Amino acid sequence: MINNVFGIDLGTNNIKIYTRNDDSVLVEKNMIAIENKSTLFAYGNSAFDMYEKAPSNIKISFPLSNGVIADIKNMETIIRYFIKDLMGGRIAPADYLIAVPTDVTEVEKRAFYDLIRDANVKARKIMVVEKAVADGLGMDIDVKNSQGVLVVNVGYETTEISILSLGGIVLSKLIKAGGLKFDEAIKNAVRKEYSLIIGGKTAENVKMSLEQMEKEDTCAVVYGRDIVTGLPVEREIPASLVNSCLEEHFNTIIDNVKVILERTPPELGADIYRHGIYLTGGASQVNRLAEKLANGTGLRVNVSENPIESVVIGLSKIIKDDNYKSVAYAIEGMSK
Ligand SMILES: Nc1ncnc2c1ncn2[C@@H]1O[C@H](COP(=O)(O)OP(=O)(O)OP(=O)(O)O)[C@@H](O)[C@H]1O
Ligand SMILES: [Mg+2]
Predict the structure, then answer these.
(1) Mutate to test the pocket of ligand 1, among 156, 182, 210, 280 (most ligand atoms within 8 A of CB)
(2) CA separation, residue 238 to residues 75, 194, 213, 214, 233 (Å)
(3) What is the pTM of this model?
(4) In which element (H, E) is residue 128 found?
(5) Helices and strands per DSSP (H, E), number in the chain
(6) pLDDT tens-digit map of 92-132
(7) Ligand 1 center–CA 295 separation, angstroms
(8) How many angstroms does the Cα of residue 239 sit away from the middle of ligand 1?
(9) Which domains occur in the chain, in start order?
């Protein structure tokens, strides 16, 4: 009998699922499109493709908000459909390992377990692991033997800053900073400077092409609506404007990393100093963040090779390698 096992990292922007059977990782937008309030119209990347373009009878939304589950029903639907797709159209019994944020309430943590239990995916065993621990494993850190590892995951709506030691979490802080805040800063700056309204996807593209723009000394060409005339126009946005509007958000992240460092027990400091900061999460790739974090803290910054997938790669290691099993736990033992 095939032993079906899935590892899931539910992000506010992207859902990542590891499938043991074929050792693969699926990354799709964690989005759902519902038609006329009740009919499933699309999910994942195809829902995202319609985002900001769909007619009003199709409601497109992210079921997670700030790293926690906000819309249980739609989140269950997305999970069920993806698991069904991954099993070739028919859901068979399976074990699940799910990554959870640390600095949230017990109820919010438990909701990840309940989600899998109630999603009609024939869950047998459901285990949980803290996201930062999985992140560490996904970045090839020997988390079980290190005494002091600083992991910073810059995601979509949240940045999780954690100190790990001997396979567990010593300190963790979840702050509301990430890729979405960067996109909004770009939107606001373009509106203020050029009286131009641009969409979220356009702002995200500008953010992602910033490094290239700097290298090639070019501007981003964007399309939007002129506030004064109301007409669609094309404008060139210089990299300098984008860099300066991101500064404030980078500082929020750097300041919070410093706060965590100040609270870290001094005995863990030696390992942190030796290894530096491990930076991951999709939005950690934004131009100059790694450099600014290094300058702001005086620590070396190690950038992840797979920033969007580091958590789910960590989950795959726990699923495949018995040496890491002890970092996962069953949630039944948690107080409600
Ligand atoms: N090359 C890139 N440069 C800058 N930002 C990027 C790049 N690629 C992806 N991103 C950003 O990464 C973010 C998504 O990252 P990720 O998948 O880690 O978030 P998430 O896990 O869904 O969110 P969260 O952890 O907050 O719940 C988006 O904001 C996206 O714009
Ligand atoms: Mg994430």
Answers:
(1) 156
(2) 39, 11, 8, 9, 16
(3) 0.97
(4) strand 123-130
(5) 11, 19
(6) 999 999 999 999 999 999 999 999 999 999 999 999 999 99
(7) 23
(8) 20
(9) 5-134+310-333 (3.30.420.40), 140-304 (3.30.420.40)
